[in-house]
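Methods — Computational structure assignment.
A single polypeptide chain was analysed. Its primary sequence is given first, followed by the predicted tertiary structure written as structure tokens.
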Amino acid sequence: MLDEDHRRLLGAFVRARREAVVPDAPARRRRTPGLRREELAARAGIGVTWVAWIEQGREVRASAETLGRLADALNLTRAERAYLFALAERRDPADPFGAGRSDAPPAIAALVERLDCPAYGLDAAWTVCCANSAARRLFVGLLDGEERPNLLRYVFTSPHARDLLPDWRDRARRLLAEFRRDYGRGLDDPRVAGVVDWLRENSEEFRSGWDEQAVLAREGGLRLFRHPEGGELRFVQHTLADVERGDFRLVVLEPAG
């Protein structure tokens, strides 16, 4: 349950945004600015009582789906929507990549920073939770200005990945099969399910590969890259699991000459 401060801030925010929305058909003699609670409830497809209780800061806990409908009804910007979900301590189902990013375990973060070769850490949803400067240079477009870069989204939807990986189709299918092995362990994590749902919706290659049900362990081996500045690069990949948090991975790319 949310504490009193969170409930109060959430209620004040929802009310302020409701009063800032211009009604579709302004009625005469409105006593309050913006939408009435009844109008917001109708827009969001939720009960008027829920809207009232949220605004009053009562001890209620709206679901992520309810908050999503409320955010849509209020026409919230991306920043406002993120603020709403942060106050409610919920993960936005419409933004699985931005939901509750996990910090890298200290052991993984420390190793990544000490290595000279490309190295990075992945959480359960394969969000890049840490990366060193060599990895940032190698993976063109993955970490540039991206607040929560996700390896799967990068490989399946970024044109940079198709240019960087000369064997893109085979690498993408292998990556997906390796992720499915981890997916079986993360079924209770809404971020993991959200990433899969988003990619099935936005990538034909991911959708067809996912339906194949292939499963592989994260094996090492030779990895080829066609870098726009470094040319043809060859690495041997090593993948280690964190001993305390089995849902985190450390990936190291050792130069292969």
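Note: The chain has two domains: 4-94, 106-255.
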